[in-house]
Write a structure and sequence with these properties.
InterPro entries: 4Fe4S_Fe-S-bd, 4Fe4S_Fe_S_CS, FAD/NAD-bd_sf, FAD/NAD-binding_dom, Ferredox_Rdtase. By secondary structure, the chain is α/β, with parallel strands linked by helices. It is built from 21 helices and 23 strands. It has a 7-stranded mixed β-sheet with strand order 7-6-5-8-23-22-21, with helices on both faces.
């Protein structure tokens, strides 16, 4: 009865280190880990100990006899990752034990290592977790919103609640007695990089890639155009996107780009709103979706089916919950690509695409249509978007798709941080192993580090940030141990006074706990995991119900 990893895998890697027989790959030390769509359990080597189940932060692992119907394809997907071998050979011949990367060892000094982390998403929280494995280390996390956890809160689709379970790990990290949240504090507005560095040995930026890559064609910018990322933020109740003008009064939506975010948006727009009402979707988005006239979402890709950007797990999940179809011409493209499958993973995607329904059959409910070899040429319409004109990739032919809403989903860009270098071509902060590098001198910028998408670009999954952050922490601690980092020039309470002077509405860990509890209570009445606040004022009002700070500090001292 081997265990199986399913589509909710976040590539965290904790299961790899929990496994006593090295049957989960690729491991963080293997070249394919950074780009793999998911991790795989070897059914031959698995000894059914269940250690991986408790280690997985998102509940993605189960015995093969306890899978739901929609998870059954993952039995073969896990097995097909491994080569066939004789019955008496447990591990593949090339297999090697995945070494557990040791935590960076901080050398004791008169003053503890104190690190500011800017951002509170997965890369930030994984970095904090790695730092706090050492005694005496202090971590302060700064986030411009009153709520933490970045894209896990605002970027994961509301019907993917399993994926959001990783926040339980982050909650545990945030309760560490040497961890402090400074939420609703924006670095660059309330505090500068130099001021942070004056109060810490190092500043680690884990701010992600917050900007969308824009599609530079005529008509983008008209009412009725936008990005899939903005729509996901609106669906999730991000306060910056609460008032996004989303018009779903038309029959069709076109999404340019076919990555996982595009499929998430397509799925939400075609899902029965009453199913979404059991999630943490924002009330405003749910009300708009309840009155939606959308009957088809077209997901358009520039290249052919073999180059689909979405992952295999995402495609399987989509086909289990939604009606997904292809035009007859796209079915032909799938067959042509199957005749020359470049690799196993692509072959599995194509086999699933081959089984999709025919778009020429009249629809009976809202559906998703995947289309290929369409390069957007211009958005149609004068006062607002009415459709998209495409060129058929590699030809002189054109193709028009009428739509009342046009969204792009073609990637992300990092954003320059004041006082730090920036690589415009790659949209990242130049770095070496997480150390920020000054391009002019080629030397590290003392005390400045990066992790996550701002370090490596918008690649990988939630768990990919774990190994990325571990590498950065290793670099930071090595510099601290070598005496390359300058001690803070002020006492710890000086930072607290400075932050409160600049931003009286700062939200600390207790304030976030009060917001969290209030949202969960609001949702429990309707059988929802939570009902989010979407206005900053409401978040601050909830945070204000937390116990006064002096009582919290006394409690912390009593607890050690």
């Amino acid at each position: 009865m081997p265990h199986v990893i399913t589509q909710s895998c976040c590539n965290d890697g904790s299961c790899v280190f929990a496994c006593p027989v090295n049957c989960i790959h690729p491991s963080p030390d293997e070249p394919g880990f950074a780009t793999t769509e998911m991790l795989y359990i070897d059914p031959v080597a698995c000894v059914d100990c269940g250690a991986c189940v408790s280690a997985c932060p998102v509940g993605a692992i189960a015995p093969d006899n306890r899978l739901e119907g929609k998870q059954l394809p993952f039995v073969e997907i896990n097995a097909s990752f491994y080569p066939e071998r004789p019955a008496d050979v447990k591990l593949p011949p090339t297999s090697k034990l995945a070494p557990v990367i040791p935590a960076a060892q901080v050398r004791a000094r008169p003053r503890p290592l104190t690190v500011a982390i800017v951002g509170s998403g997965p890369a930030a929280m994984y970095a904090a977790d790695e730092l706090l494995t050492q005694p005496g280390v202090r971590v302060n996390v700064f986030e411009k919103l009153p709520t933490p956890y970045g894209l896990v809160r605002a970027g994961v689709a509301p019907d993917h609640q399993n994926t959001k379970k990783v926040t339980a790990l982050f909650d545990r990290v945030s309760r560490h007695r040497h961890f402090r949240f400074y939420l609703n504090v924006e670095v660059g507005q309330h505090l500068s990089h130099a001021e942070l560095l004056a109060h810490h040995h190092a500043v680690l930026y884990a701010v992600g890639a917050p900007d969308d890559r824009r599609l530079d064609i005529d008509g983008m910018g008209l009412p009725g155009t936008g990005t899939a990322t903005e729509l996901v933020a609106w669906i999730n109740g991000h306060p910056d996107f609460t008032d996004l003008p989303v018009d779903l009064s038309h029959e069709r939506v076109v999404i340019v780009g076919n990555g996982n975010v595009a499929l998430d948006v397509a799925r939400v727009l075609t899902t029965d709103p009453e199913e979404l009402a059991r999630t943490d979707i924002s009330d405003r988005a749910l009300e708009v979706l309840r009155h939606s006239e959308v009957r088809e979402v077209v997901v358009a890709a520039r290249r052919g089916p073999a180059h689909s950007a979405f992952t295999l797990p995402e495609l399987i999940g989509l086909t289990e919950t939604s009606e997904v179809v292809l035009d007859p011409e796209d079915h032909k493209l799938v067959e042509a690509d199957l005749a020359a499958v470049p690799d196993r993973l692509t072959g599995q995607k194509l086999e699933i695409l081959r089984e999709l329904g025919d778009a020429s059959v009249p629809r009976t409910r809202p559906r998703i249509r995947l289309t290929y070899r369409l390069t957007p040429a211009r958005v149609l319409g004068e006062q607002r978007a009415t459709g998209v004109e495409f060129s058929v990739t590699g030809t002189e032919d054109t193709h028009r798709i009428d739509a009342g809403l046009v969204l792009t989903s073609i990637g992300y860009r990092g954003k320059q941080i004041r006082d730090l270098p920036f690589d415009e071509s790659r949209s990242v902060i130049p770095n070496d192993g997480g150390r920020v590098i000054d391009p002019a001198s080629g030397q590290p910028v003392t005390g400045a580090y990066v992790a996550g998408w701002i370090k490596r670009g918008p690649t990988g999954f939630i768990g990919t940030n774990k190994s990325c952050s571990v590498q950065t922490v290793q670099s930071l601690v090595a510099d601290y141990n070598a005496g390359a980092l300058t001690d803070p020039v002020t006492k710890p309470d000086g930072l607290d006074r400075l932050v409160h002077a600049r931003q009286p509405d700062v939200v600390d860990s207790a304030g976030w706990a009060a917001i969290d509890a209030a949202e969960i209570a609001r949702g429990s009445d309707d059988g929802r995991p939570r009902n989010k606040f979407t206005e900053v004022a409401d978040m601050l009002a909830a945070a204000a119900t937390a116990p006064p700070a002096p009582k919290r500090r006394l409690l912390a001292r009593l607890l050690g």
